[in-house]
Structures are given as structure tokens and as C-alpha cells.
Amino acid sequence: MDAIFEGGKFIGECFEGMNVKIEWVVGCLVKNKDFEKVRSGRTIHDISFHQIGVGRGFISKIYKVTLHFGDSKPFSVVMKIPGSDGLAQFTALSGQEENILPLDEHLHNRECKMYELIKNITGLKVPTFYGASESNKRGAIIIEFIEQSSYHVEFTDRLSRQHLTNLFDQLLILQAHFINVKPTTWKNKYPSSIDAKALKFLSDQFVPNFESIKNSLPKYMWFDIEEDVLKLGSHFDEIITYNYFELPTQEKSENVLVHGDLVLNNILFNPDNEIRALIDWQVSFEGTLTNDLARLLVMCTDSNLRHEFEKTELKAYFDNLKARSNLKMNYLKFRELYDISLIDQTMMLTNALHMIMYQIHPLPNEDISAYEDKQNKLKSLVCVALRDACKAAKLSKPEWLL
């Protein structure tokens, strides 16, 4: 290893302000043929790094690390380390900082394990995985640096039909894999890391967020569902417990490992709108088939396109999954699970509205009325989802409306 560094530089050193050793990172990279092709036997002259995605991540810190080989082309990677500074900043603004649980280490370790499980799934669009080290003090994940030409859809926008179709294809690959692979590799090993207690800083925002919706939107959009919405919100803890802990452990349940946080920030697209990578797997867990599907449709899609996909594409997805896997479930059960997931994700979206708004900023020279229109469009989307969730609860879980 010493021969890789020019003049013995960086031997025994850590990245400034961290406990991650430079030698360990390079040791992960030399096992990769792409890195060795770029290095081409040259020594490392210098290493630079800086934090990226500031304000985007809530439970990790992300750095771009670049290795320089003199005059030749450098090689860049992403290094993720545990850190909930972003979440702490938001909860401090919300007066909820005392409710943060020390999840950094656990979620980091979960992502380490997930990259090992998914790195070789054919067709799944994930960053190249170079290596990982568990634990909080020295933990780090080294993955591919995605070129800056890639993008994610902003919160004030929504996924297009093409985006959504491509994402359904990705979920089909992921779910078929875990249905078909030997269950001993993952089954009963990855329970949800997030429970109702950990989400208290969000659940406390339900009523204020609904009040914000009422104050911004015409009365006809919400007055007839207000009572049911507030009752549904009062059952948040029960809804989370049922979706994330009870359903996956029911007898004869056909679960998969779900991404668990498949929202707009964590989906990167190429300029041609094809998926470049699904990132941030730290909250992945063993859950129902419809968990990620509902998250995409509720969290990331406008109401009209969601309704269209619910009417036609969910059935097509289910048929494709049956054809490509050993799934025994029938569509009626699948659709019942989706309705339960729809309720769950609508609660999550409503609770997170304040957090989402916190990340939305006016564009340079943007008129304040245009900025407010974007906010109200998002609130309208939440309101429609709440109406649909109340309807689903009346059919599937009427006790959540008591």
C-alpha cells in the first residue's frame, strides 16, 4: 500500500476532522478495476475532498473525495459518514430537537449491509460500491461519484410518466430478486429501524401542517374531510406500527427488502430522463410489496398521474411481478396492501410537509407570488392524498377513523 502514495504521503493520516483513514479508502479502491485502469500504475500525488449536498441530507454527511495522479486524469468517489446535523438543524427550528434519537450509527450500518446485498443485482441502477466500514466513530461508505450532469426532480415538481415507468421497472427488478433469492440471506434480518417514537418530531407536525393546508387552500377542498383527517392523524403511531412491524411479520406474508426512502432526493436521472442511480439505502427494511410503490406515487407524483397509475399500472406491475418471480399472492391482497401503504405514506407526507417546505427556496429573481403558488400546489397535492387516504381507511381500516 505504501508504494501507491507519492513519497509516502498520507500514510497513517485521516481525513481532516474525521476518523476515517486515507489508506483504508484507497485500499477499497485498489480492488476495483476501473480505479486501477485510471491509476495505470501511477502514484497518488494529492488528495482533495469537500462536502457536497449540504442541506440535502438529514442523517449523513457526504463528501467528494478526489485522488490526483500528477498530470493524469484524477479519480473521484463519494464518501458518506454518519451525521444527523441536517436533521438536528430542522428539528431545532421546529422546537423538536429533544425528540431525535441516536440513529446515526444504526442507519449507517444498515446502509453498509444493503449495498453488500444489492451491489450485484443485475439491472438495478445503484452507484458502484467500493467498500464500507461499520460503526459510528470510524464508519464510512465509499461509492461511485455520479457525474454532475445527472439530476433529481425538485420537490416543487413531480415525476413524469416516463420517470415513473422507469422507476416501476427498477422496483420490479428489486422485488423479483428478493422473492426469488434464498430467504436465508435476508429474511427476518432487517426489521425497520424507524418506529413511531423515532418519528415523533414529525407526527407532532400533523395538526399544524393540516392547519397550514386549510389556511392556504379554498375551503371546498378540505371542509368535508376535516373531521376524518384529524381522526386519521390521531392514529399515526398505530398506523406506523401496523405498516412497519405488524404486517411484515404476519403469517404467510410475502415481503421484500424495500428501499424505504424512495423520494425525489434519492433518485438520480440522466439528462435523457433515464434512471442513473437509486441512492441512500440507510432506512431499508423488510416490508410489504407496496411500501415503495405507494411512496413513489404519493410522495413523488402529482395526483392525476397517481390516480391513473393506481387504476391501470398497479395491475400491470403485479402481473409482471408474478411472471418474473415465485410470488403466490393474488391481486386482491396486493391491492389491499397498497391501500394500507397509501394511508401510511399520506400520513408521512402530511407530517413531513413542514420539513419539505424548509428545503424549498425561491429561485433567483422569482416573484413571491410564483413561489407561493409552488407551495400551494404542494399543499393541494397533500390535501388530495388525505382525501384518498380517508376513503381507503373507510374500506380497509375503519377503526383508524374513530
Give descriptors for this structure.
5-stranded antiparallel β-sheet; two-stranded antiparallel ribbon; Aminoglycoside 3'-phosphotransferase, Chain: A, domain 2; single chain; CHK domain-containing protein; Phosphorylase Kinase, domain 1; alpha+beta; globular; 402 residues; 14 helices
Description:
The protein has helices at residues 22-29, 33-39, 85-93, 104-118, 161-180, 200-203, 206-216, 226-234, 236-246, 291-300, 303-324, 331-351, 353-359, 368-396; strands spanning 46-52, 60-68, 75-82, 129-133, 140-144, 256-258, 267-269, 275-278, 285-287. The protein is an alpha+beta fold. The chain has 2 domains: 2-142, Phosphorylase Kinase, domain 1; 150-401, Aminoglycoside 3'-phosphotransferase, Chain: A, domain 2 (Alpha-Beta Complex). The strands form 3 sheets. The chain has a 5-stranded antiparallel beta sheet with strand order 1-2-3-5-4, with helices on both faces. Strands 6-9 form a two-stranded antiparallel sheet. The chain is globular and about 75 Å long. This is CHK domain-containing protein.
Give a short synopsis of this structure.
This is CHK domain-containing protein. The protein has 402 residues and is α+β, with helices and mostly antiparallel strands.
Q: How are the SSEs placed, and which strands pair?
A:
Elements: H1 22-29, H2 33-39, E1 46-52, E2 60-68, E3 75-82, H3 85-93, H4 104-118, E4 129-133, E5 140-144, H5 161-180, H6 200-203, H7 206-216, H8 226-234, H9 236-246, E6 256-258, E7 267-269, E8 275-278, E9 285-287, H10 291-300, H11 303-324, H12 331-351, H13 353-359, H14 368-396
Antiparallel strand pairs: 1-2, 2-3, 3-5, 4-5, 6-9, 7-8
